[in-house]
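Reminder to self: tokens first, then the designed residues, so the page reads top to bottom the way the pipeline ran.
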């Protein structure tokens, strides 16, 4: 009897070839398919972990770069013999350029992808800082500061949108951890920048070294940023600005506006504490300059600590609960500040406020990004860009507004006015909750590098 070969099995000619080749064969095929599924899930899991590490690293890099600019402001003022007014104008240019950049971030992401927006902006920002160091006069300095603001606006928008993508892929919150990485990077940038200033290092040398390190980091981690690719069985979560072509008003939904208002209120309170805590402790409570600096240290340290555990809390509790309890805790902290009879008690109040303000802003960013990916949304990048527009506006206006009110009412009463603002955020925290239709988000598969396959 002649025989034929089917794979590794030899059958007599004319014999019926059952696809599974018997019970043992069926079990073998099932086991093989299960193995392939496990390998596929393993590849996707590794890609998601790599994407999370990459996005977190970008947040840390951004914090280090911005802190490196802020901590060298005295050197910048001295090197260019800037007046306080001109320095304030240059600082405003950074914020204005960042605001303008957020308006084009969504459209740019639609063309090249949010991952490429992050890569380009993350390399451009240190080059812009080097331009600040090399500037030979006010005109060149203004141009460099505009480039710093534009690059930072694109990077801020893109990296938050990327974090939303990773959240949807991982089915777990990561935004608090990303913002904690930003804070840690900011502390690192402040320390290294302060050390460079103490050693008498020029701005050019400092920013050249910083730029080389940051560029190397971005080149390494940039490949891990999630691309806009999706698993076949799930619809994509949009990260583009597809609706942006319908006009500048597209995407300004009621929910995005409410989230933007909440984010602006939270960031206004945060900016007021950062700018005025030391002045309040020194001038209103009579603290020494050394003790006065502890207000900001306590606020920042407790905020960073809260964000380090924020993702675990977000996995266990609804976002609206964390926003409501966080802003209520911050309101209690600021209340303690304004009624404190001694500087030390006020420092404790600032620490409590920092802990309360740890999670609300990251959760608001996350909610905006997810809102952009829902049915009828304009994309995560576009939604985050709109939120960033409102929060940047608050960051730009809040310190000056607090100063004006403090001049009329005193700093104690001005800080007290922040309490009802935080209470309002707690009252409207329900808007952070995601609709039931989006509780189980579609899987977003980050691009798996060829070598991982």
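Designed residues (453 positions):
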């Amino acid at each position: 009897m002649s025989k034929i070969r089917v794979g590794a099995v030899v059958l007599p000619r004319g014999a019926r070839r059952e696809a599974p080749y018997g019970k043992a064969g069926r079990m073998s095929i099932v086991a093989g398919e299960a193995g392939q599924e496990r390998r596929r899930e393993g590849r996707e899991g590794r890609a998601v972990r790599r994407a999370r590490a990459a996005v977190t690293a970008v947040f840390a890099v951004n914090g280090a770069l911005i802190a490196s600019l802020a901590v060298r402001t005295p050197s910048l003022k001295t090197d260019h013999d800037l007046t306080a007014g001109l320095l304030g104008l240059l600082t405003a240019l950074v914020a204005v350029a960042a605001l303008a950049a957020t308006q084009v971030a969504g459209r740019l992401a639609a063309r090249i992808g949010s991952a490429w927006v992050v890569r380009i902006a993350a390399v451009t920002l240190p080059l812009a800082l080097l331009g600040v160091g090399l500037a030979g006069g006010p005109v060149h300095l203004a141009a460099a500061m505009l480039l710093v603001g534009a690059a930072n606006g694109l990077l801020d928008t893109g990296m938050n949108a990327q974090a939303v993508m990773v959240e949807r892929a991982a089915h777990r919150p990561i935004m608090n951890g990303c913002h904690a990485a930003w804070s840690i990077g900011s502390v690192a940038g402040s320390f290294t920048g302060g050390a460079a200033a103490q050693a008498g290092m020029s701005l050019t040398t400092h920013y050249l070294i910083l730029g080389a390190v940051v560029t190397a980091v971005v080149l390494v981690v940039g490949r891990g940023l999630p691309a806009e690719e999706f698993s076949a069985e799930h619809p994509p979560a949009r990260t583009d600005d597809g609706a942006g072509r319908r006009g500048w008003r597209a995407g300004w939904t009621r929910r995005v506006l409410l989230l933007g208002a909440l984010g602006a209120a939270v960031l206004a309170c945060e900016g007021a504490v950062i700018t005025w805590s030391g002045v309040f402790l020194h001038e209103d409570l009579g603290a020494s300059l050394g003790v006065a600096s502890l207000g900001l240290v306590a606020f920042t340290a407790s905020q960073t600590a809260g964000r380090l555990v924020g993702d675990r809390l977000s996995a266990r509790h609804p976002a609206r609960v964390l926003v409501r309890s966080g802003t209520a805790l911050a309101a209690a902290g600021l209340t303690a500040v304004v009624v404190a009879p001694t500087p030390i008690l006020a420092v404790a109040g600032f620490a409590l406020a920092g802990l309360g303000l740890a999670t609300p802003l990251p959760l608001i960013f996350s909610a905006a990004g997810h809102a952009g990916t829902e049915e009828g949304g304009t994309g995560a990048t576009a939604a985050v860009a709109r939120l960033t527009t409102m929060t940047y506006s608050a960051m730009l206006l809040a310190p000056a507004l607090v100063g004006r009110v403090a001049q009329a009412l005193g700093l104690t009463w001005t800080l007290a006015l922040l309490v009802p603002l935080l209470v309002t955020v707690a009252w409207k925290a329900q808007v952070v909750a995601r609709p039931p239709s989006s509780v189980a988000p579609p899987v977003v598969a980050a691009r798996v590098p060829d070598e991982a396959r």
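The longest strand covers residues 3-6.
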